[in-house]
């Protein structure tokens, strides 16, 4: 959905934001549906546990980048989340090579939902969207802190 989002976002002028938001929501819905189906039918795999959050991060970063390019959101929001997500990706690759996977948890999922709501509010022109975006950035750092704690506990246990 990422290439479709970018194409639509930049190709439809003033309506690109609304159409892009619809694509973003569809991507989010299919992501939730995919996870539900995988758990319900016991189709959860190690690769899925790794690739699903990676796809979520890439979609979110793409949307934030596009919104910042059009000056809908401040560019620093994209930079901050990009640094956070890239550090999580690098850590995830490190752990994956050590045969350890940290699955997503409540904090990461809550942060993602907050970003979806904030981006939708921005797309619809609600002034609260900016505040929600800042709350989403803050929640992303709560999630990062939580994952860092899990990472270091895991690393310490492997050393013992």
TrEMBL record:
GO molecular function terms listed in the Swiss-Prot or TrEMBL record: CDP-diacylglycerol-glycerol-3-phosphate 3-phosphatidyltransferase activity
One GO biological process term: phosphatidylglycerol biosynthetic process
PROSITE patterns named among the record's database cross-references: CDP_ALCOHOL_P_TRANSF (PS00379)
Catalytic activity: a CDP-1,2-diacyl-sn-glycerol + sn-glycerol 3-phosphate = a 1,2-diacyl-sn-glycero-3-phospho-(1'-sn-glycero-3'-phosphate) + CMP + H(+)
InterPro entries referenced in this protein's UniProt entry, alphabetically: CDP-alcohol_PTase-I (IPR050324), CDP-OH_P_trans (IPR000462), CDP-OH_PTrfase_TM_dom (IPR043130), CDP_ALCOHOL_P_TRANSF_CS (IPR048254), Phosphatidylglycerol_P_synth (IPR004570)
Cellular localisation: Membrane
Annotated membrane topology: Multi-pass membrane protein
Main localisation: membrane
Similarity section: Belongs to the CDP-alcohol phosphatidyltransferase class-I family.
Protein's UniProt name: CDP-diacylglycerol--glycerol-3-phosphate 3-phosphatidyltransferase
Organism lineage: Bacteria, Bacillati, Bacillota, Clostridia, Eubacteriales
């Amino acid at each position: 959905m990422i290439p479709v989002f970018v194409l639509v976002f930049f190709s439809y002028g003033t309506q690109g934001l609304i159409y892009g938001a619809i694509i973003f929501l569809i991507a989010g819905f299919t992501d939730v549906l995919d996870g539900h189906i995988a758990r319900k039918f016991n189709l959860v795999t190690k690769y899925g546990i790794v690739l699903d959050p990676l796809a979520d991060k890439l979609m979110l970063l793409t949307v934030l980048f596009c919104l910042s390019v059009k000056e809908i959101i401040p560019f620093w929001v994209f930079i901050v989340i990009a640094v956070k997500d890239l550090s999580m990706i690098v850590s995830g690759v490190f752990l994956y090579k050590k045969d350890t996977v940290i699955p997503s948890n409540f904090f990461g999922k809550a942060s993602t939902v907050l970003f979806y709501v904030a981006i939708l509010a921005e797309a619809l022109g609600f002034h609260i969207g900016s505040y929600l975006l800042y709350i989403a950035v803050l929640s992303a750092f709560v999630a990062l802190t939580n994952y860092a704690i899990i990472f270091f506990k895991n690393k310490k246990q492997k050393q013992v």
